[in-house]
Amino acid sequence: MIQALIVDDEPLHIQGLVRHVGWERLGYAPPLTAESGEEALEVLGEMDVDVLITDVSMPGMTGIELLAKCRADYPKLQSLHTLMISGFDEFEFVQEAIHLGAKAYVLKPIRTEEIEEKLAAFRAAIEKREQIERETRALQDKLTGSLDVLQDRFVNDLIEGRSEDAELMDSWRRLLDLPEAVRHIRLFLFAYDRQERGAPADARQRILLADGLWKAVKIGLSGWEGTYVGKTGASETAVVHLNAKPLDRAGMEKQLQFMQEIIREQYDASVTIGVSRDGDGWEDVPPLYKEAKHMLAKARLGGGGRILYFDRAEAEEYREYLLKEEEVPEMIRLLERGEDDQARVMFDLAFERLLARQPASFSYVQAFGMGIISELAKIGSGKEDGADNANILVWQRLIDCTDAGEVREAVLDYMARFSRSIKREDAAPQHNLIRRIADYIAAHLQDPMTVKQLAEQFHLNASYLSVLFKKETGRTISDYVQDARMTRAKELLRDPNVKIYEVAAQVGFQTAAYFTYLFKKVVGQTPQEYRDYAK
């Protein structure tokens, strides 16, 4: 049955709900009770609770603070259905509670029929969630009977880097009975070469070839423990092999050529196979796959039908490829976005790898530095006065370098100069935009105002506006609006002819009660106390 918890500092209110609500008729167990937020948290920590019914206004911890604490500190309570009970003049508090995830509220004086209506709606929602969970578990059980589907999805999840999700990996361990400890991992990548009689003419043929490759690999490697096979593309299949014993490794490698022959006989197609280096854990699978894929793409230029091993020479070439095609472009993108620290970290890591090469080559380090500066110079040329002269000077500085440390400092100095140039270029329009938004906020303090509304007003993406505003002002938009309202409220309170409820309305609050609550929370005095002190 569904379990509810009633929280109220008035014992008579609790007793009334316990006695007059038809809990059993509604499908609920007898409710648990607590007379404070602190006591409620103890109950929630020890008992399984589905529904929380709490008064908004309580001494010590309010109902809103209780709900916020539940959301922040108790992950298991994220699906908790909450019913807030409030007085009419506390409606603003209820709005805040709804933002925190409260599902419903009722106003005092409480009517039993209204409480029961909300509880019935909660029960229906809980039953639907439980039904979905049951059907999901049933689907999981059904999938367990289809090992091929599971293996395919598992291999793709590993390649896509989802092994960082601990909950996902725990579910895979249960479904596939994976070993608890992974000592080493090796990846095999099987990929069709260009067909000797041309590419497949239609979709049906492509599907037949893809399924044929997958089946041939699955059957060919079925005798070895710890192998998981997945289709990773229309013309390739990957195998992840866990904790292979030396005899198994040798046996699998002997099987590879036989599998190539079978595929050639059955589908008149040649296959190239890439064998990765050894990895130490799940997180190594994505780079193992990328390395093997790069190795196969390069090998096809010299003809297909080969079995390739990712050795030291391949590793060296792949690192150079990554540096040129991925890492340097990413450093430049980071600098263009103003993320200088991350760009510097990437540069330092790449630089250290270059120095660790055996034998270490100063000319290669120098060429690496020149490559980065060349790419930055293309982007920065003409963006500021004297850029061309500065480029000539840094080229000369690099040519005059006599050791790797000097190259490093020269490149880092140029990266910093480029970053400053980008920031100066971006700062002026951003500053003007934020100033216009701040002026708009000041002129519309009496109106409801959300980040989404502001973004629409200025034709911006809401997330982008939030980041830009915080970067420019050092405050979030909501904090800025609240501060602006409090500042304006203080000005109005100095005029004794303006009533407090009029001050509340002029700075955007629907009720004087919520304005008083927030003003005291921010300023440390009630509006009346502030007015009296300011006289």
From TrEMBL:
<dbReference type="Pfam" id="PF00072">
    <property type="entry name" value="Response_reg"/>
</dbReference>
<keyword id="KW-0805">Transcription regulation</keyword>
<dbReference type="InterPro" id="IPR011006">
    <property type="entry name" value="CheY-like_superfamily"/>
</dbReference>
<feature type="domain" description="HTH araC/xylS-type">
    <location>
        <begin position="435"/>
        <end position="533"/>
    </location>
</feature>
<dbReference type="InterPro" id="IPR018060">
    <property type="entry name" value="HTH_AraC"/>
</dbReference>
<keyword id="KW-0597">Phosphoprotein</keyword>
<dbReference type="Pfam" id="PF12833">
    <property type="entry name" value="HTH_18"/>
</dbReference>
<dbReference type="InterPro" id="IPR001789">
    <property type="entry name" value="Sig_transdc_resp-reg_receiver"/>
</dbReference>
<feature type="domain" description="Response regulatory">
    <location>
        <begin position="3"/>
        <end position="123"/>
    </location>
</feature>
<feature type="modified residue" description="4-aspartylphosphate">
    <location>
        <position position="55"/>
    </location>
</feature>
<keyword id="KW-0238">DNA-binding</keyword>
<dbReference type="InterPro" id="IPR018062">
    <property type="entry name" value="HTH_AraC-typ_CS"/>
</dbReference>
<feature type="domain" description="GGDEF">
    <location>
        <begin position="183"/>
        <end position="312"/>
    </location>
</feature>
<keyword id="KW-0804">Transcription</keyword>
<dbReference type="InterPro" id="IPR020449">
    <property type="entry name" value="Tscrpt_reg_AraC-type_HTH"/>
</dbReference>
<feature type="coiled-coil region">
    <location>
        <begin position="115"/>
        <end position="142"/>
    </location>
</feature>
<protein>
    <submittedName>
        <fullName>Response regulator</fullName>
    </submittedName>
</protein>
<keyword id="KW-0175">Coiled coil</keyword>
<dbReference type="InterPro" id="IPR000160">
    <property type="entry name" value="GGDEF_dom"/>
</dbReference>
<dbReference type="InterPro" id="IPR009057">
    <property type="entry name" value="Homeodomain-like_sf"/>
</dbReference>
